[in-house]
Design a protein that fits this description.
Layout (H helix, E strand, L loop, with lengths): L8 E6 L5 E9 L2 E8 L5 E3 L6 E7 L5 E8 L4 E8 L6 E7 L1 E5 L5 E6 L6 E6 L6 E2 L6 E7 L5 E6 L6 E6 L6 E2 L8 E5 L5 E6 L11 E6 L6 E2 L15
Antiparallel strand pairs: 1-2, 2-3, 3-4, 5-6, 6-7, 7-8, 9-10, 10-11, 11-12, 13-14, 14-15, 15-16, 17-18, 18-19, 19-20
Length: 242
Amino acid sequence: MTWQDSLQHFYPSLSPDGRYVVYSGFREENVYEIYKLRVQDGREDRLTNRIGIATAAEFSPDGQRIVFTRNNPRNNQFQLMLMDANGENVGNIPQVLGWDTTWSPDGKQILFASDRDGTTQLFTVNLEGRQLSRITNLPAIRGRSDWSPDGQFIVTYSGEAWNREVYIMNADGSNVRQLTPSGGNSQGPSFSPDGKWVVFTAYFDHQGDDHGCEIYIIRTDGTDLRRLTDNDYCDYQPRWGP
């Protein structure tokens, strides 16, 4: 869908009405910008301007705001950032450092990854930087998690390189269980709009091949694993649209 072949594109996410896609694009060394693309005609607008490495953008549930992560290459700090859907009123969530942000379904909280307690875990916080709560205690959280549409569950992935698995849990972090079959190096999960499926990247059919990741779906009870793609390049970071 994007047309700038010389520009590396990452972290796509659809707006709630399906009309726009936000994504991160490489501009120059240590500069990644957030772009918004109109699905109907491919028009692209750059929303940020040289604020650092801007990634993992996502529309709020009402489509009015965007949350994203800003990395400062000078000190390697990751900030949680908010802006209006047109790129105006950019600012950070105060006193909170982290990355791989995603909205709660009611738009009142942000789920993110942080190593503030030593190991990387998942936290939630409100838009004012208050009510900070750690919700996971997994051995090797990577980030890029998702909240179910009804707000009851969270999916994430954890594990060392080539041994990662997708986990599902209650929204408060309780009742954690492994969702994906072992051995697929599964990662980057996202809920379907009806909350019955999880889409993710895995290597079940090309284990050990850096370019062998494909997109799979699985029911939230861990059944009915299906592969959706079959390409000679890595299909990564899926996000379900409306």
